[in-house]
Design a protein that fits this description.
By secondary structure, the protein is of the alpha/beta class. Helix content is 37%, strand content 21%. The protein folds into 2 domains: 3-54, no CATH class; 59-260, Glycoside hydrolase/deacetylase (TIM Barrel, Alpha-Beta Barrel). The chain has helices at 3-9, 72-80, 98-103, 105-113, 123-130, 135-153, 170-178, 197-209, 233-248; strands at residues 31-38, 47-54, 59-67, 84-85, 88-89, 93-96, 117-122, 160-163, 182-183, 187-188, 224-229, 252-253. The strands form 3 sheets. Strands 3, 6, 7, 8, 9, 10, 11 and 12 form an 8-stranded parallel sheet that branches. A two-stranded antiparallel ribbon has the order 1-2. A two-stranded antiparallel sheet has the order 4-5. A hairpin with an 8-residue loop joins β1 and β2. It is elongated, with a radius of gyration of 25 Å. The termini are far apart.
Amino acid sequence: MDSSWFLQKVEAPISCEFKVEGIKGSQLTNDVRILVEFTPVELEETYRDSAFLTVLETQFVLTFDDGPLPEKTEKIVGVLKSLYHNGEPVRAAFFQRTSKIHQFPELARLVDENGHLVFNRALELERRARKRTKAEEIEENILLWEEEIVKALGTTPERMIRARYLKKGERFEKEAEKIGARICGGELVFDFRTSSPGKVKSRAADILEGWNTRENPQLHPYPAILIFHEHPTVTYNYIGEIVSYLQGRGFILVNFDPDLIY
């Protein structure tokens, strides 16, 4: 049998690879419909097919806990000047402690003057909450933090707090909500447990790999909130390298937006 006749008469599956750029999922779904048309050589008939492409565009934001701290805060802020979102230096969030702001108000100002956000790292507050203190004392601690930040910055930031070990507790949440304070969670990269930038890269990449998947659609379009700390050597010395690695994997660094927290 003539093989050329066979190829003309028998339909066979066609496999090909192609790259799609510039496509984003909607705010409600990660799926985008792709229409494919092709016309075989020497034939007039055009074949059409379509498929749904799952767009797993994963965004992340940077947050830093437990500062401000001499030298370390300056290093982190300096590196952030070289990281961009939409053509401008990226905006991160710093959750700072009352006692540290009292000691180093100039560092809190440095963070603010460089376009970053300063919020409440509620260590003292959470300790009091665990001891089942009165609601008034929880509020008092939030107001104490605000007193220190006003001295440092001259303004009062939005009432957003991060609880110790991310353990909020029903009482903590209730009293925070009562005075209009929002609670910010996030994903720990465990930078305080290692001096190896490789381990932090791996941990952060694992978090982002699982962030936007078909099985996990409720997280779209919210960015992953990565929690670093100011004091670990691996953070203030390697944060730029860690972020570059994540960007090289296709993850997208964006500004911290208080309206896009979970």
